[in-house]
User: Fold DNA-binding protein from Clostridium perfringens E str. JGS1987.
Amino acid sequence: MSRVGERIKEAREKSGMTQKALAKKLGVAEKFVNEVETGRKIINESLISKVSKVLNTDLNDINMVVTDEELQKELKAEKQVRQTKPAEVNEVWNQAFGSVLKNVPIYDYSLAQVKGYKQLATASNKIDGHTANKVFYLKIENNDMTGYRIQENDLALCYSIKEIENNSICLVEFNGKRVIRQIKKLDNVKALLISNNGSMRTETANIKEVKSIAKLYRIEFDL
Assistant:
């Protein structure tokens, strides 16, 4: 609280006048009076004189003169408050949204380098029920699976897997190549790797020779 504000408050209370009544006599808002008394607003000399007349007290005595140094300190403090509050609010919002949104990486089939990100909502650190850190996008590199409506440059949302899931469409590594295939288990030893670029093609593989990398569960594409 500034010394001017303190004196105004003391004089007002001594005269039995409310902030609302003083504001009305000065032709200002009640909020302004409150901010002057609490030191959040700086009052000029002409208004000090007007307050002095209304409250019948001298607020312009030598002890009440606000020096340039004091004025600058108050102005600096007010500026800091104005600059700090929006930053604090933004940080709160960033933290709040950071807890429900996650940057999901986009990879090519090698998974060696992030090509970009898309934000997805999380719930209890999961995306669509899958652990958030295991979910990623895969950019489709060819038209091997057009029969499944999966085309080159589409984005497939996936999650990491270590074992083959029957009747699923997965990114697998087989014969030294990474490909998207539908997997159908024939038994505990062999599986069919199915592609469809307009006509269906199947390969029989030993399950132990197929490295499961990710299961695709959603396709996104531009119209």
